[in-house]
Write a structure and sequence with these properties.
The chain is an alpha+beta fold. It has one domain. It contains 4 helices and 6 strands, in the order αββαβααβββ. The chain has a 6-stranded antiparallel sheet, with helices on both faces. The model has no long low-confidence stretch (mean pLDDT 90).
Length: 145
């Protein structure tokens, strides 16, 4: 299964395919962002993220695990292969992601999954006011490259 197919399945499930745009597209990695048109309430973000992983058959990975640390390291390596980034790899930056979004007055949930050698990091966020779109951010990495 190719990373574009997995991304398409996720974005379709979240009704976010139309208008979605990749910000990085290589043979190893795809980063894409879109707006979900699905009616998801703030207290349903967590279940929405995990339901999508279940729908596509991905195995959920505990974000605070050694396996997650390894996968995030590979994703970071792929990104650094395409874009010059100052500083060292900060694997724990992902853990601060939720705090950063909440400080910007947003509800946010994220999950890490694995499907046939493709790592999936999915973030779903929206303004706490409930007004405006729900954003979907995906990072997919082919771990078998």
């Amino acid at each position: 299964m190719k990373i574009h197919e997995v991304a398409g399945d996720i974005m379709t499930s979240l009704e976010a395919f139309h208008g979605s745009r990749p910000s990085m597209d290589t043979s190893q990695m795809l980063i894409v962002r879109g707006m979900s048109r699905k009616n998801i309430k703030p207290d349903e973000l967590d279940s929405a993220v995990y339901n999508v992983l279940n729908e596509i058959g991905a195995r959920k990975i505990e974000v605070f695990s050694d396996e997650a640390k390894d996968i995030i390291g590979v994703m970071d390596e792929y990104i650094r292969g395409q874009v010059e980034i100052q500083g060292d790899t900060d694997i724990y930056g992902i853990y601060r992601l939720k705090e950063s979004f909440e400080a910007m007055n947003c509800h946010v949930e994220y999950a890490l999954g694995l499907l046939n050698g493709i790592a999936i990091f999915m973030v779903l966020w929206m303004d706490k006011s409930g007004i405006g779109p729900k954003f979907v951010e995906l990072v997919l990495a082919n771990l078998e490259c």
